[in-house]
Amino acid sequence: MEKDFWLERWELQQIGFHQNAVNPYLERYGDRLKGKVFVPLCGKSLDMSWLAGQGAEVLGVELSPIAVRAYFEENGVSATCKSCGKFESHEANGIRILCGDFFDLRREDMQGVSAIYDRASMVALPVAMRERYVHHMMSILPEGAEILLITFDYPQDEMQGPPFAVSVEEVKRLYRDLAHIALLDQADILEPRFAERGVTRMQEKVFLLKSAGNSVR
After folding, report:
1. Is residue 20 classed exposed, middle or buried when 0-12, 13-18 and 19+ CB atoms within 10 A define those classes?
2. What letters, b where the CB count within 10 A reaches 16 and e where it falls short, cover 84-118?
3. Helix, strand, coil share of the chain (percent; to 5)
4. Among 92, 85, 88, 128, which residue's Cα sits nearest to residue 108?
5. How far lies 56's CA from each of 32, 40, 94, 95, 108, in Å?
6. How many CB atoms within 10 Å of residue 143?
7. How far, in Å, CA of 136 to CA of 40, rounded?
8. Model confidence over 4-63: pLDDT tens digits?
9. Which fold has domain 3-12+22-211?
10. Which residue, among 151, 150, 117, 147, has the nearest Cα to 210 in the 3D structure?
11. What is the pLDDT of residue 215?
12. Residues facing residue 207 across a β-bridge
């Protein structure tokens, strides 16, 4: 989606994608995320607090300054702010959020990252943007970094995203030459808010991806 779309969603507080609790799949599989964990399109997710509580160093990136401020304010934390290249860096209690465009991230920004938690990033992107997203992600990641990826899968013609449908086949197509792929979990879910929009079936899927090396660098 275009930047203005997401900035407007935060300005209007149309943030149905925000979860008011820690994601249950993160609680189930988050012990695989060690060291420094990168959270793309992090919003004001409570998942960052959970990761920090497990001893991880958290690095997020978020386009909306409203979301970044809200994360620290709602958690009662005063963050240290400074300019960092094309980003504004906000940091406190082991959590650092870079406010700016994901596609402006460089390999230097990802130094020390050993894992990525992608709950809200891939599913926020239409098909036309996903290949660019994956290529950029894999080009800046340190070798061997693991990705915990959570997706939704439903008949895309039944609802206009976001969240967009991302099938197992799509994950394999995007990552097959870049990462080793394992499907950890899947479940049938169909929340009323999606059924009301015409969706007849929906699955949530959890993948663990491990970088295959320098194939896109």
Report:
1. exposed
2. eeebebbbbeebbbbbbebeebeeebbeebbbbbb
3. 35, 30, 40
4. 85
5. 11, 15, 8, 9, 19
6. 10
7. 12
8. 998 999 999 888 788 899 999 999 999 999 999 999 999 999 999 999 999 999 999 999
9. Rossmann fold (3.40.50)
10. 147
11. 42
12. 149, 183
Between CA 39 and CA 11, with CA 74 as vertex, the angle to 5 degrees is 75
Nearest in space to 75 (alpha carbons), one of 88, 60, 63: 60
Amino acid at 50: W
Residue given tokens 């209690």 in the structure block: 93
What ranges make up the beta strands (E) of 100-145?
Answer: 113-118
Nearest to 103 by CA among 134, 77, 128: 134
DSSP label at 28? H
Name the residue ranges covered by the structural domains of the chain.
Answer: 3-12+22-211
| pLDDT at site 19 | 87
| Block residue for tokens 């660019």 | 132
Q: What is the DSSP letter of 165?
A: B
